[in-house]
Amino acid sequence: MKLILDGDINVYYIQTLCMIFFPGEKFGEREKNAPATPELRLKLTRRANGMSAKATVKVGTEKATASRTLEFSPHYTEEKTAKMVCGAAVITACGELLGYRPSWGMLTGVRPSKVATDLLRHGVSKTRVKRILTSEYFVIPKKAALATDVALTEQRIIGTPEKRDCSVYISIPFCPTRCSYCSFVSYTSKKLLSLIPDYLVRLQKDIRETFATIRALGLKVKTVYIGGGTPTILSADQLRDLLSLITRETDVSALEEYTLEGGRADTITAEKLAVAREYGVTRTCVNPQSLCEEVLVNIGRCHSTDDFFRAYDVARKSGIADINTDLIVGLPGDTFKTFSKTFDQILGLRPENITVHTFCVKKAADILRQDSHVYSLRGGEAGKCVDYTQLKTQQEGYKPYYMYRQKNTVGNYENVGFSVEGHEAKYNIYMMEEVHSIFAAGAGAVTKLVDYKPQNGGNPVIERLFYPKYPYEYLRDESTAEKRARIETFYREHGLLEEEENP
Questions:
Q1: Domain range 164-482, CATH class
Q2: pLDDT single digits (tens) 270-290
Q3: Residue 248 CB: number of other CB atoms within 10 A?
Q4: Was domain 1-100 assigned CATH 3.90.950.10?
Q5: For residue 64, how many other CB atoms are within 10 A of its CB?
């Protein structure tokens, strides 16, 4: 897609707005010169009392133009004012040309409830928050209500964060097979799976050092999350070694939540979940994605619906308190009829958590190489499916408790976690809302250091430390000491160490 920008404009923001209307578009030099490429001209002008923007979008011989003006406000920085006026102009012009209104308006970030959270934190009423989202951000009313409800739930659960709170994420980046829609760094070949024993030796070393750092800093671990990949690809004995180490390193009985992702039904056994329960795991995941056999074949899931029901029964009988199931709206071959049947069957099982994702087309996913036309602007029946999940969960006593969005989702829809009240997955909220540090170990894992400041009127200060993506690189990585030193420096620089609080 060709962008012609005039003024101090956030280019990345404009690109993400354009991708709402032109999913899958690219912005390189080759795309600029393609004969049929869409074109956007955008001019931003600073005036004495505000800013104005004019957008013209052109596709072939058709074009549409929109102009918007926004006065300066004490509630918005100049940068925010520029983004909003540009966003309004682009959304209006593109919407007029294509006859399409995106559900989330000009909100393009991962956290669509962030605007609602910020407004609520400044004392704006729930009703007024929804009105601002619809009138100033072009969010449709039902999504404005969803964002506000999620923000309120998150605020209730987060409360007032303590600066010594933290969580721990442990990465098991291996899967028995790779789903066609997946772009996560997970490894499936026989050669790479053979690395698991060596990987676990190195991982245990990093786990010990991670918890040693946490203890040295005087921090309190609130949640532990073992994710992947598919952690239950490990054998029962391997799981026992891993979980027993965590038990030695921290008091798991004091955790608010302890999650072991199961995910793939074909890796879940009674023996493995018995080990998990023995070592204090309180939450697990059994993720069918769909209960339509044809759809499962389409996406490369090597399990049947019967396998899922067997695995779910094993999880329920294990005594692990909370079970999550993941579903994906808009998968190739799925329809409203098949998806709604899937969702009704899941509701009948009464899992404590249901996470509904919208199919997201990732650049590295195999499905994009198989079918380059999987991008979808309006999403077909996906919107109807999303609405169905939100209506049915409400009827069945579930509430939305966390939400995030990704680029290139079918129909530009969201991912929402629903929960029985009192069983919300707290790690998901802490991670998404960035209220405390997340210490990570393992290939592809990211430690996110957080100095949480909203209670003082500021934005969180965040620093990320990355482990190598690939297991064979991770096995050669020698940056652990460097990471530990950087963590200690971060806590010292931000006045978060115990001795600095009590001199």
A1: alpha beta
A2: 999 999 999 999 999 999 999
A3: 11
A4: yes
A5: 16
Can you read off the two tokens belonging to residue 214? 């946490």
Q: Is 219 left (phi over 0), alpha (psi -120 to 50) or beta?
A: beta
CB-facing half-sphere around the CA of 139: CA atoms within 13 A: 26
Strand-pair category, 39-46 with 2-6: parallel
E strand or H helix at 490:
helix 480-493
**DSSP annotation of 473:** H
Query: Phi and psi dihedrals of 93, rounded to 5?
Result: -65, -50
- Which residues, including other chains, have CB under 8 Å from residue 443's CB and lie 6 or more apart? 171, 173, 185, 199, 467, 468, 469, 470, 471, 473, 474
Going by pLDDT thresholds of 50, 70 and 90, the confidence category of residue 503 is very low
Q: How many CA atoms lie within 13 A of 74 on its CB side?
A: 0
Phi then psi for residue 384, to 5 deg, are -65, -40
Residue 358: Cβ-neighbour burial (10 angstroms; 0-12, 13-18, 19+): buried
CB 39 within 8 A of CB 17: no
pTM for this model (two decimals)? 0.91
Q: Mention every residue, 6+ apart, whose C-beta is less than 8 A from residue 369.
A: none
Alpha carbons within 13 angstroms on the beta-carbon side of residue 187 total 20
Domain ranges for the chain, please list them.
1-100, 111-159, 164-482
CB 277: neighbour CB atoms within 10 A?
17
**Residue 272's Cα: distance from chain center in Å?**
27
* Chain centroid to CA 297: 25
Q: Do residues 32 and 41 touch, judged by C-beta distance below 8 A? A: no
Q: Supply 376's token pair.
A: 């979808």
- Distance between CA atoms of 218 and 90, rounded to whole angstroms? 49
